[in-house]
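tool_call: predict_structure(chain=1)
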Amino acid sequence: MANDQSVTTRSGAATGPVVAHLSPSERAARGKAARAKVPRAAHAVFEPQGSRPDPVALLEEQAVSRVPELVPIRYGRMLVSPFAFYRGAALVMASDLEGTPRSGLTVQACGDAHLSNFGMFASPERTLVFDVNDFDETLPGPWEWDVKRLAASLAIAGRERGFSTKERTAVVRAAVEAYRTEMRALAEMRELDVWYQRIDVQKAMADVGHQLQPSRRHRTEAEIAKARTSDSMQAFDKLTRVVDGEHRIVSDPPLIVPIDELLPDQEADLQTERLHELLRAYRRTLQTDRRQLLERFRFVQAARKVVGVGSVGTRVWIVLLLGRDGHDPLFLQAKEAQASVLERFLPKGTYANQGERVVAGQHLMQAASDIFLGWERAEGSDGVRRDYYFRQLRDWKVSLDPDQMVPTGMTLYGRMCGWTLARAHARSGDRIAIASYLGSSPAFDTAIASFAEAYADRNQLDYEQLQHAVASGRVAAQTGL
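tool_result:
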């Protein structure tokens, strides 16, 4: 991140930070100095310390602030496979990464950059782009942590697909090589060119589609076509039905529960009004044009929804709005934003509102973000004030399923993720210093491939600990949801 300090004018008014502008050669020297202090080969090592926290205890700590009746669903989803466990164990890995070598170069980190948190969605210009798409844990931090989380996710997913050690290593090395070579390319670019970089999905398919077997290429093209139908209209058709002439959200407990079913009558009315007020207040965080667009929609109904794996138990509301008539829907999602899992291991962020932290991090890392992305704070029915961020529930958003990938496909997908992560980091960090640290040789790629396999071993043991905790009755799990 930029090295800056705040200053004031003669009148005492704050003028904002003064940013130090180093020359490219000075920035490259920073990277070489960091490499001399922390060699690239040092990143290959993962040796859990004897005082390593109990992974289940870390998950139990997170459960304290979550909706109690939903926590068993989280454990149930994590029990599906070691990869599912990994998806929900961002805090566990953050705790492990704290003890690993760091270059000292900081970026806006995703904090949970596993392969399923990359995917396709619509840009404001209505093109399909590929990018990072989950920022609940974003915080300024070491760029290596994101790379290691991505690499380990590929190794774990490869094991579940039955890939050989050689195949898994090739997949991970390809992803890290893509990160390294793209960072070097970005280091040579002008600032605006870096900012405008993005992956256009249709162009990417045209470039790499010939490397896939015909059946795999057709399946990927079908997924791309499917993504274009995943929007508010599709959610409207799937999640609502007409009751007394008005569309209402269909109840599917415990995954989707309208407020009037979740709470007694008076409490339901009060909670509905709270959410309506939250929606009105959140509008102030939008650009003027987008705020005026949102004001053309009227509030209809809200429901609690269970989403993801690691997020299960946090408070998530979906809000149905209608525009010009009863067939002009907009579904927004208001998701509780808690402190990043990175926060206990790194300096705290500068945002008082966790929702704003998520939104700011997303804007920094993504090439294009949801036009309705915003944040606000609200008091719940229990009297506790919580932070939320808003976005569209669906806007062509889809992630490719690693369970369907063969080695060639996962290699291509890993390369896209590595390329994307480099571009995301280059927007906030010192890309020239990072590129200088990485160098032109595959030394870092090799080191991270070793780390990924070692961490996949650790993840397997942690997964088995959760299995034992459920079997012993220490924690309750609800499966099949």
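agent: The chain has a mean pLDDT of 91. Proceeding to next step.
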